[in-house]
Design goal:
Blueprint lengths: L10 E4 L9 H28 L6 H18 L2 H10 L3 E3 H34 L1 H7 L2 H26 L9 E2 L6 H6 L6 H34 L4 H34 L3 H7 L2 H17 L1 H10 L11 H11 L1
Parallel strand pairs: 1-3
Antiparallel strand pairs: 1-2
Helix pairs in contact: 1-2, 1-3, 1-11, 1-12, 2-4, 2-11, 4-5, 4-6, 4-8, 4-9, 6-8, 9-10, 9-11, 9-13, 11-12
GO molecular function: G protein-coupled receptor activity; olfactory receptor activity
Organism: Puma concolor (Mountain lion)
Subcellular location: Cell membrane
Length: 327
Amino acid sequence: MEPRNLTAISEFLLLGFSEESAFQPLIFGLFLSMYLITVFGNLLIILAISSDSHLHMPMYFFLANLSFVDICFTSTTIPKMLWNIQTQSKVITYEDCITQMYFFLLFAGLDNYILTVMAYDRFLAICHPLHYTVSMNPRLCGLLVLVSWIMSVLHSLLQTSVVLRLSFCTDLEIPHFFCEIKQVVQLACSDTFLNDMVMYFGAGLLGGGPLAGILYSYSKIVSSICGISSAQGKYKAFSTCASHLSVVFLFYCTSLGVYLSSTATQSSYSGATASVMYPVVTPMLNPFIYSLRNRDIKRALKKSFGKETMKGPIALGQLHLMAELKA
């Protein structure tokens, strides 16, 4: 096929999950429910943290940022997919596709970096409790989030800018429910060597670096927990990390599962179904993980809805843990 000039491209077609019209109402209802649960669940986390002064701590500051990013992450893909199902259209304009790709990469990178920052916060709280309140001050917390944003913006700009140089053939069907960068690059008729190199670089920057930081932080945390003499102290120390560790495990396992499934299967619909996990399912489950496993969040939510009157700081568990670690 003859490649067309990039400026002549006006739209792509998102094939989604299935061409069977009978399944479209079911898919619409399922993803609308998941989207609403994600948005309201993460908004509740943000509300609980912002409305209770006892939760104005570094750990919960980063959690509120993670919840905000998860809302944005899901909102880059699901509303467009729901609109296409409702209007029975598969079209996405070229400009909208590039924009969606940019914001998807941006918030995926932010998710990764904020999870790493949260691991660093737990490392300081458990391994260096004497210096925690001084080291993890509001200025450092803001700086860590700012650097995460800058890194993610630069990475997203780099990835999308090299896509803009590509020329495409007449086949503009994307076997996905959103403009996933790998699928878009595969449609190009021009040379994609630079794009492949940039994607590999991005995978190392967003995957290898943060994951190495998380693994290092938790190796030190496990070592410190093993040094605690009492079983109760070990349990308290582990309980402050359990929710974050669950989210990290879910995020990286689903991302790895999507990658393996995309290389193993030849079915475009199977690949699209597998890729639902980390941009949709993981942000939806995060509020449940943090609210069910974290007594501070549960108490703050009850207080927000007037079901419980707080008589003292709700972060007493963390303060008791830090006192025990100092001892």
